[in-house]
Amino acid sequence: MKQTIKNSIKKVYSQACVYHIILQGKITPALLDSIDEMQIRENGKGEINLIGWLPDQSALIGLLNHLNEIRYGILSVKALMNE
């Protein structure tokens, strides 16, 4: 059972996928320059919702690292659907 769950998680994060990322902070020009074609929305509680397609896990990790570098707190990352 554990191996099946691990394989499912690995499959989701190693393929192209639509992600929902929740950040702590406010929208800034630096953030807008970082997210390419992702949808962005502030929720009024000091959180930012990003939703968009990323081609693979490397792109996801690169984006998360960059968001950390520009000082955004990463609250949540969810895979919504994959190809």
Give the structural class.
Answer: alpha+beta
Number of helices: 3
What fraction of residues sit in β-strands? 35-45%
Radius of gyration (CA) equals 13 Å
Weakly predicted, low-confidence segments: none
Number of E-state strands: 4
Oligomer: single chain
Mean pLDDT: 87
Question: From N to C, what is the helix and strand string?
Answer: HEHEEHE
How much helicity do the residues have? 25-40%
Write out the strand line-up for the largest beta sheet, numbering strands in chain order: 2-3-1-4
Largest beta sheet, briefly? Answer: 4 strands, antiparallel
N- to C-terminal distance: 24 Å
Please give a quick description of this structure:
The chain is an alpha+beta fold and 83 residues long. It has three helices and four strands; from the N terminus they run αβαββαβ. The chain has helices at 2-13, 29-34, 57-69; strands spanning 17-24, 39-42, 47-54, 73-82.
